[in-house]
Amino acid sequence: MNDARHVLPDVLKPGLRVVFCGTAAGTVSAARGAYYAHPQNKFWRALFDVGLTPRRLEPEEYWKVLEFGIGLTDLAKHVSGMDRELPPGSLGDAACAALTAKIEAVQPKLLAFTSLTAGRRYLGRAAAFGDSGHRIGLTRAWLLPSPSPTAGWNWSAHEHWWRRLAAEARG
Prior knowledge:
- The protein is an alpha/beta fold.
- It has helices at 27-32, 43-49, 93-106, 116-123, 155-158, 160-170, and strands at 18-25, 70-80, 110-113, 130-136, 139-143.
């Protein structure tokens, strides 16, 4: 399932509680070779704070998420950068079809997009935070507020969505 041309490898296996899917690896993440690696990104702190991991993992430990029933991927696997910097088409039909195939293969309980951009591009429609109503087999698709430092303006008002997702993942 992994492709050597991917900026970051997929971290997937069957039976996961939740797979987190970003838009694309950010510049810092691509440079460090680790998911959500920007020092101000809230992803790893959020996983710990909502009880999905027993301690705060470091970005370079990203493979350890499998131990906790968590997977990682991105919609655009072959490019990196901020959403507005991504090449045209990198979040298009081919990227969405590839994500669908991955999720069909591993069937996690939940697929959680870590930004409205990623979720809306995948769904092809406007959507709000929470359960989108979309299913890939038995997998339910959720949209979460972005933990990225560029999206910090809405974090405190919406971080409760991460807690709701964690409750769903555990339930």
